[in-house]
Specification:
- This protein has 2 domains: about 70 residues, DNA polymerase, domain 1 (Orthogonal Bundle), CATH 1.10.150; about 130 residues, HAD superfamily/HAD-like (Rossmann fold, 3-Layer(aba) Sandwich), CATH 3.40.50.
- By secondary structure, it is mainly α.
- Helix content is about 50%, strand content about 10%.
Length: about 200
Amino acid sequence: MLDDLALVVKATNVSLAGVGGLPITAEEHRRDFRRPVEAYYAGVLGRPLRADEFAGLNRAFHDAYDAGLTSIALTVDALDALASWPGTQSLLSMWFHDQLVPAVDRYGLTHFFLRVDGLRAQVGGGHKAPHLAAHLAAMGIDGADCVMIGDAVDDALAAASVGARCVLYSGGVTDALRLAEVGVPVVDSLTEAVAIAAATESARA
């Protein structure tokens, strides 16, 4: 929901610079980004990472991202998309939970969500699937009753792991051509994503 690709790339370059890596462009990030994030960094750097080295990269990224967040706006149609969904909504992010919750409130979004969950670990970067399963279990909701809207290949894989449907938004961290390879609907706006998600719910019903 945040128009934060430029900030993500900036924070990634801060973390790469700390270990002597070369800067990447937005196009390169959208083409190459994947989870686990450790594998992404290893691919960019051309070498494997030690656990402590990745932990440092991960922290450097989050520190740089958090520092730049005050200048980031919501995606132009984020509020319209949230308001147009006819059912309940929840938010699952791999951003640290203690930073995510106040940010959601700061953007005036808290009232849209039944539940908000972020990462409750010291180091992130892993796959979303186990976090999605825990998120749904906490609400007592079956994956088959859900549609996930995401912007990464890993979002679609996580949705599939719990039997949920998925729509992917091409304006985020991953190139549209890579998203299309997953085999779920790919759209260019959040309002379109919600419209397609609602249509899949109607068709299922």
